[in-house]
Fold this protein.
Amino acid sequence: MKRCPAGYKYENGRCVPRKKFYMMDNVGRAKYTVNFYDGKKKHSDGSEFYDIEIFKNKRKRDDFVESLIKDGYTERGWME
């Protein structure tokens, strides 16, 4: 099995970006935010494009995170 750089996984004979997410609390006026990357979207300079979802309560945020995990997303590490 080929080794891939951090943030990538080996799939179908090549290294592909992982689906990943991270959470941030109290950003501006937003109480809870979840930033997630689907492994495909890129900025024009080639960097990863993260979508954002904003929540007013923790229960809805946790339900959304649970659905991301079911879809194959992993929580981004601190050093990634």
Notes: The chain has a mean pLDDT of 86. The chain has one domain: 19-74. The longest helix spans residues 58-70.
